[in-house]
Amino acid sequence: MMKNNSFGFLYEIIILIIKNCVIIHWIGCVFMDDTIVAISTALGIGAISIIRLSGNDAIKIVNKIFKGKNLEKVASHTINHGFIVDKNETIDEVLVSVMHHPKTYTTEDVVEINTHGGIASTNKVLELCLTNGARLAEPGEFTKRAFLNGRLDLTQAEAVEDIINSSTDKSLLLSVNQLTGSLKNMIINLRKDLINLMANIEVNIDYPEYEDAENITIKLLREKLIPIKNKLLDLLSESDNTKLIKDGINIAIVGRPNVGKSSLLNKFLDEEKAIVTNVEGTTRDLIEGSIIYKGIKLNFIDTAGIRKSNDLVESIGIKKSLNAIENADLIILTLNNNEEIKDEDKELLKIINNKPYIIFINKNDLESKINISNKLNSYICYGNTIDNNGIDALKNKINEMFSLDKILIKDSTYLTNARQKSLIKIAISQIDEALANLEMHTPVDIVEIDIKNAWNTLGEIIGATYKDELLNELFSNFCLGK
Ligand code: GDP
To answer: For residue 444, how far is its CA from the centre of ligand 1 (angstroms)?
Structure first.
């Protein structure tokens, strides 16, 4: 009876693995029969544009509109010079890369047409590919195919998009690490540890007569589970700063109208991006700009001056400012050194009180009339935007508050998004559940269920199991042609 159970479980695991492969293969067969095409470079005026095709008919389709060598006969991974033609009309002189499956980005046949980078010629070549049998790719569909065909796991697919969006060296390094498979390999190894543990439990229950079978006692199970949990905890804590590295710090500059918020933004950005005038209520919308400081992006948002207003446009701006405060990681409340504190300043202090904030008292080149309480539990910096006074002090304070000097990216493994982090937290709680059950001397085959849950959850991170909605959501954020 017990033996049947054991085989039942192993059978279940094998079926699960086969099912995943079959589903992936089935999806592949049903949805990936067609050949997709998209412009893979940013559409605009540039030296070259690349139109990319992937699928069974990629080479055949391009061959129909190509004047030069017979592309169906050229060797794989070659670049071929020729012309794109529409009947007798020459559209552009091009270089065409022909790559036979499976050593391609999608593992399918891939063709890339390098055209001269004009908008008209690029669109015309795309149109010809479409009329000759290709389908316009959805955003991220090339990478989705690479995932469904097993060339990339989900973490590597996410890394592709992150590389495209990287704006600092640190965020680039983070994404490249992930693309090389560091997270994937770590998760695969942890899952192996868990599956070994489950297999050992089974053997132990059913074949106690096997002397070499490891005697899984409560003590031993705990000894094996705790290091796995610790590795997950380390991974989570090492990844504390990855959001900051990827997205930067959102800093909202707030204050009453005319205190110098736009001038402060301009000083930070070192350019005249915000409109600066002395008419109150000029900044009615949000003005944003970023700088890279200590390798981290500081995203400044210059908000509309917050005050009571009957003007509809200004009121909308003020609403947006309140939202910006809500979403900010840090607030710089700007006050005017040349005026007494007003009720609106006090109101603002109340609004931002539950957020990290710095007070910048601007216009210290003018006579001081401000009567600010020194009991305020905040860093106060005096300065002005005429001669840059106080700007470095503000930057130093930001550095100190977010420990920017200490953020180092090692050649290591990190979690780079909320999806991965939340799944790791779930896996940790499932291992905790197993440990708690061990503590209560629950039968080990019940503990095994917790271990299997953790194994499944880790599988979701790399996409060993996934839901279609997740894939649709994930790849729809990609740019077209990737
Ligand atoms: P905002 O409405 O808070 O964005 O304020 P602005 O940046 O548009 O500035 C309002 C006015 O204050 C403009 O005339 C600026 O030239 C002036 N201003 C800004 N910063 C300073 C400063 O540090 N000293 C002095 N004297 N004037 C400033």
So the answer is: 70
For residue 179, report the phi and psi dihedrals to the nearest 5 degrees: -65, -30
Q: Whose CA is nearest to atom 13 of ligand 1?
A: 278
- Is 54 close to ligand 1, i.e. is its CB under 6 Å away? no
Q: What is the CA radius of gyration of the chain?
A: 30
Q: Based on the domain organization, do 394 and 365 belong to the same domain? A: yes
- Which range of residues forms the domain containing residue 204? 182-241+412-463
Distance CA 42, CA 198 (A): 50
CATH number at residue 439: 1.20.120.430
Q: Which residue has the tokens 């600092």?
A: 168
Terminal Cα-to-Cα distance of the chain (whole angstroms): 53
- Structural domain count of the chain: 3
Does the Cβ of 255 fall within 6 Å of ligand 1? yes
Ligand 1 centroid, distance to 336 Cα (angstroms):
9
In a domain, 281, yes or no: yes
Lowest-pLDDT range of 222-231, 306-315, 397-406:
306-315
Domain boundary among 386, 406, 426: 406
Q: How far is CA 249 from CA 9, 10, 241, in A?
A: 48, 48, 11
Same domain, 47 and 82: yes
Ligand 1 centroid – CA 79 distance (Å)? 58
In this structure, which residue's CA is closest to atom 8 in ligand 1? Answer: 276
Q: Is residue 367 part of a domain?
A: yes
Query: Cα–Cα–Cα angle for 264, 270, 276, nearest 5°?
Result: 45
* Distance from the alpha carbon of residue 263 to the mean position of ligand 1, in angstroms: 6
Residues 189 and 327 in one domain: no
Locate the ligand 1 atom nearest the alpha carbon of residue 256 and give its number.
3
SS3 of 111, please? strand
- Considering only CA atoms, which of 289, 202, 284 is closest in space to residue 12? 202
pLDDT digits (tens, 9 = 90+) for 246-284: 999 999 999 988 999 989 998 998 865 555 555 555 555
* Domain assignment of residue 211, yes or no: yes
Same domain, 369 and 252: yes
Beta pairing class for 296-302 and 287-293: antiparallel
Distance 290 CA to ligand 1 centre (A): 20
**Residue with structure tokens 């939202």?**
323
Tell me if 213 is assigned to some domain: yes
> Do 196 and 222 share a domain, yes or no?
yes
Output the furthest CA–CA distance in the chain (Å, rounded): 91
Q: Is the CB of 263 under 6 A from ligand 1?
A: yes
List pLDDT tens digits, range 147-194: 999 999 999 999 998 998 888 889 998 999 899 999 999 999 999 999
Is residue 176 packed enough to be buried (19+ CB in 10 Å), middle (13-18) or exposed (0-12)? middle
The answer to whether residues 336 and 274 belong to one domain is yes
